[in-house]
Amino acid sequence: MNIVLSDYVDPDYGLRNPVEMEFIWATDIVSYGLKRQTNQLWPQPKRRWIVNWAGLKSGARSRLNELFNRAAGRYRTFYWKDRDDYACGLADWSYTASAGDTTTQLQKQYHLGETESWTEDKKAIVPGSTYAPTVKLDGVAKTEGTHFTLDDDTGLIDWTGGSSPVGALSGGEVITADYQFYFIVAFESDAFRDKLLIPTLARPSFVLEEVP
Prior knowledge:
This protein is mainly beta. It has 2 domains: 115 residues, 2-Layer Sandwich (Phosphorylase Kinase, domain 1); 94 residues, no CATH class. 6% of the residues lie in helices and 41% in strands. Strands 1, 4, 5, 6, 17, 18 and 19 form a 7-stranded antiparallel β-sheet that branches. Strands 7, 8, 12, 13 and 16 form a 5-stranded antiparallel β-sheet that branches. A 3-stranded antiparallel β-sheet has the order 9-15-14, with no helix packed on it. A hairpin with a 4-residue loop joins strand 14 and strand 15. The longest helix is centred in the N-terminal third of the chain and has 13 residues. The radius of gyration is 21 Å and the shape is flat.
C-alpha cells in the first residue's frame, strides 16, 4: 500500500506536533559468572516513531482513520516521511562498481567516516515527479529514463534501461546519488486510539514501526 502518511495530515497541525523517534538495536548478552559477552544481532538499528498530535480537525482525523482501516491495523505497510531523515546527498553515500554490474541499489551511509557506521538499502524512493534524483557515475550526472531507469519501489538503478542506457559497468566506477526516500512502516497496534477533545477536534496517538 504505497500511501504516504503525511498526505493524510492536517496542514494546520501535521508534523509540527511532537513526534518521538527511537533507534532500536538487538543485542544478545551471555553471562558467565562475572564475565559478560555481547553479540550484535542486527547490522543496523530499527526505528520506532511515537506520534502524538496536539489536535486534528475532523477532516484530517477522518482521513487518518481511513488510512488505519485501509492498512487493517498492523496488517499492511505504508510509507512514512521522517521530517529529520528523508534525503541522501551526494556526500552521504558512494559505491564502487564491480565488472559486469548492470544494477545498483540506492543506499545511505549513516555516521559516514566514523568507526561505528552502517549502510542501509533505501527501497521506497520519492518519485522523480516530486523530487528528481541526481545520479552520478564518476562525477558525471546521468539522466533517469535516458541513461538508466530507477524502480521507486525497490531503489534499484538499472543501467541497461532507458533510451540510451549506460549498459553493464566495466568495474571501478564510483556511483553517488542525491535523492529523497520514505520509510516503510506499519502501525504497531491493531487498535486505533483517538481522543475527541471537542466535536471538531481530536487527538489521535499511535506508534509506527519500521518494516525491513
